[in-house]
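Researcher: We plan to redesign the surface later, but first we want a full-length starting point. Tokens attached.
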């Protein structure tokens, strides 16, 4: 096998309702875009409970690490009172970058569900494919392509407007 993408990619069924945490993550991404941030949203669930959520906030907070996933992980850790998020799922609209993918591993997230792939900045099924490296000590279950069409369209619209 030359590429891991096919094995983690879910079939997108048009009109099929999205899992509520991904629906919420996409709404958070739309909020980000409305604030001039690259539209990415993230939600952390523990069982049925939402324990953390955030959207990109780098520009607004002047914090280059304020990616949606990082902020959502911090919220979840605070809410659960522990640094390790065993038993949690992280839902994010875009394939995580290297920083976020590493943080997701450090947090011991059980399952990572993402929307669109990011061929330029992604580090899960693109670029370094962090969880495939021998130095990676925790590999979450992966599921890609959930909410992909809407997530990709949010990003396209955002960058098209910025290029004007
Ligand atoms: Zn990131």
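Model: Full-length starting sequence:
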């Amino acid at each position: 096998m030359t590429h891991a993408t096919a094995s983690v990619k879910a079939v997108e069924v048009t009109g099929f309702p999205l899992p509520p945490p991904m629906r919420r993550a996409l709404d958070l991404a739309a909020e980000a875009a409305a604030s001039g941030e690259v539209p990415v949203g993230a939600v952390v669930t523990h069982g049925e409970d939402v324990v953390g959520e955030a959207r990109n906030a780098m520009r607004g907070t002047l914090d280059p690490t304020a990616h949606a996933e990082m902020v959502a992980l911090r919220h979840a850790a605070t809410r659960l009172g522990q640094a390790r998020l065993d038993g949690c799922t992280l839902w994010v609209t875009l394939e995580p970058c290297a920083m976020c993918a590493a943080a997701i591993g450090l947090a011991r997230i059980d399952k990572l569900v993402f929307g669109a792939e990011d061929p330029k900045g992604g580090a899960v099924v693109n670029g370094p494919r962090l969880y495939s490296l021998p130095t990676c000590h925790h590999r979450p279950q992966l599921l890609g392509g959930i909410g992909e069409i809407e997530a990709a369209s949010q990003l396209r619209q955002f960058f098209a407007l910025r290029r004007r």
